[in-house]
Amino acid sequence: MSEPSHPLAPPGLVQPLLGLAVLTGGVVLMEPAPYDLLMCGALVVGPMFLWPSFRPSLALPLLLAALLVLANGISIVLSPDLGRSLGFFGVTAYLLASAALVAGWLDRAGTPLLRTLLHAYAVGAGITATLAVGAYFGVLPGAELMLPKGRLQGLFKDANVFGAFMVPAVVLAVARLGDARRRAPWAVLLLVGGLGVLLSYSRGAWINLALSVIAYLGLRLASGRVRPSLATIVGACVGLMVLGGALVAALEHPTVREMLEIRASAQGYDDDRFGNQAAALVVALEHPLGIGPGATEVRFPISAHSLYVRAFVENGVLGLWATLGLLLLSQARALWVSLQPGDEANQRMLTVVAAALVGAVVESAVIDTIHWRHLWLLLALAWAPRLRER
Hints:
71% of the residues lie in helices and 0% in strands. With 390 residues, the chain is mostly helical.
């Protein structure tokens, strides 16, 4: 996969605009969310200050994105609820456009923009997690807003989304704990982010986090960039102590123990989910062009609870292949680039993205992630250029 042949350009106004948008990604109590308003502003204004660049290796993911738009356009005429489908497709198209332009800006601006976006994500996740965890234990106000059903959802409308949103920030904290400098803020992020995932009681988020952390450590070992230095050993010990202490303290809370026991066992609605997915697959086979964007909730009693099932039943065979192709190609590229030699700081950030995407792609099989903003951001970050080793 080729590197950009042009000289990198300063990100200018695009960097603070995108950074501010990502910073607000932890606040999704309403739609459009602040993230959407700021991102749309960046999409409109950004090209005036920094024109995105699309190197040849971006051609295939852009083609897959275009095919997904085409699949939506074909299936929309078959929708039982045209108004709903138009609105649903509009959100999908906006997220696709945002991912494409962010990838183009990353290609133009390089590592400085990648660093800004990841750090903005970490700050936004840290603020949201701190408020949410504090409210859960009664230290801060807002319990009625942030855990209305006993599951921590922070400033999101769904605990599953909140838990999954925390995962990339936790992986970044794990990565940065190996630094000899400024270890304390990352330890705090690891603490509140890890508790946020735990207290969301989202089984999908638990799996996501476990896979992402394992993937990060595995990629670092496979790349040969993990050395038994004092900083690495101290960072690992700090991380283990922070996580261990947080888990022990949380498990002492009777409500936490009770909820963990409930969520760790099979739920009554699991059979309904799987039955609904089986019925959706039957309908998908009967309608190879799809039944229309967002039509799952119209046709079935509950949503698909799987990105891939939704793509198949709503956008047909073309939509399924375009969705799978875009996610798996982005995942493959992120994994490939994380294993290449290059600048250490840049490679660490790219490895964080690759690892977080592993968990997100797997969780998408059991959760409908089509409109999760951070998923599309990860897909864009997966195509960030690597910085060659000096």
